[in-house]
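User: Hey, my collaborator sent me this sequence without any context and asked if I could get a structure. I don't really work with proteins. Can you help?
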Amino acid sequence: MSEQHPETDTHDRREGETLGSPTPESGAERDPQEWVTGDEPMTGPQRSYLDNLARQAGEEIPADLNKAEASEHIERLREKTGSGDS
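Assistant: No problem. I've predicted the 3D structure and written it out in structure-token form, which is a compact way to encode the shape of the chain:
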């Protein structure tokens, strides 16, 4: 039985939209750039977490990031905001 994965729909990317803006609009340790799926659009949980972190940091970030780019921004913003510290 052969199962194919549907192509990622690029229509999900919202041109010009940013995350972390003051008014919202309606775990691996490997290098994110080496991820097999790193060039796919960021996941819903990444988007939500990145939006919250960007707000805390007072930054606006493009909303059309891929998984690898989102992960890199999350890591950077976690360090900047101190989020995730035990």
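In plain terms: Residues 2-11 have pLDDT under 50 and may be disordered. You can pass these tokens on to your collaborator as they are.
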